[in-house]
Amino acid sequence: MEAIILQILNGLDKGSAYALIALGLTLIFGTLGVVNFAHGALFMIGAFCAVTLQRILSLSYEVVDDTRTDFLGNPLKVDVPYVNGWFGPEMGQTIIEWSVPLAILFAIPVMMFVGYAMERGLIKHFYKRPHADQILVTFGLAIVLQEVIKAFYGANPIPTPAPPAFTGSFDFGALIGFDPNQIIYPYWRLIYFTFAAFVITAVFAFLQFTTFGMVVRAGMADRETVGLLGIDIDKRFTMMFAIAAVVAGLAGVMYTPINSPNYHMGMDFLVLSFVVVVVGGMGSLPGAVLAGFVLGILESFASMAEVIDIIPGINQIIIYLVAIIILLTRPRGLMGRRGVMED
């Protein structure tokens, strides 16, 4: 039972990343009808927003420390971060240590700008083009963004630690009635799942209960009729592209302590996220979220040593096997809508 609960927690952790990226993909496809293969790059850019903020907060200047000397007896020069000079040593160090959560505030405007620029500068020219053209141009854009990140940050992963308060592990088993130290799980992974649940809930609430969201949902159902009512639905869809970029970016920001950012992390998640979208049903937001968590849990169980001993390599293909089975039995996916990509 302990192993089962631990694998479910691992699955929710992976599923959170899949669900957030797939949610953004589905928002873009549902509103604009664009198959965006550059969405994984948005996840990567969000992760490097955290790296960038960490480097900015770590910028320092040299001061002479009269209390310390080098081997010649001269006063030692030490690097002092600017934030330490502005806010004091303790507060400055705390700000640096909490750079990942603070990067959320930094990433939101950055990702909105990136999403808006991407849609206005490139994507809008491919609305009426075949999906194959959309895939080719957005995949090319993803490669360009990947190489830009590689040029600026290098090819090696960049460690981006969580705040010290969340670097340990939590005795989850004791919380639910098991013996102590039976189910130990990292704090940050629990925080990531909680954060993902909050973002997903916020997106659904925004679409369901705000006037802007209601207009967007109406436009997704019948774009021409909404336009005839005098509503600039194109502008609202552009904002939805920016919001989808923010969702992917925030997923990347919070994932950095789990997986050190590298230039190819967007591609690593992209293919899996598209499988999640297809399994959930093209254009279905609830389907994308449901499929993300289901496939994450299945992948986690398939990674157990006992399972791999019986079927070697099953953890590498389980998601694709499940996708094949579901699409053979339900061609539209778990919650797909009639007519989506069927023309």
From TrEMBL:
It comes from the Bacteria. It comes from Litoreibacter roseus. It is a multi-pass membrane protein. The chain crosses the membrane at residues 16-35, 42-61, 95-114, 190-216, 236-257, 269-298, 310-328. Belongs to the binding-protein-dependent transport system permease family. LivHM subfamily. This is Branched-chain amino acid ABC transporter permease. GO terms for molecular function: transmembrane transporter activity. It holds the Pfam family BPD_transp_2. One of its GO terms (cellular component) is plasma membrane. Keywords: Amino-acid transport, Cell membrane, Membrane, Transmembrane, Transmembrane helix, Transport. GO terms for biological process: amino acid transport. It is found in: Cell membrane.
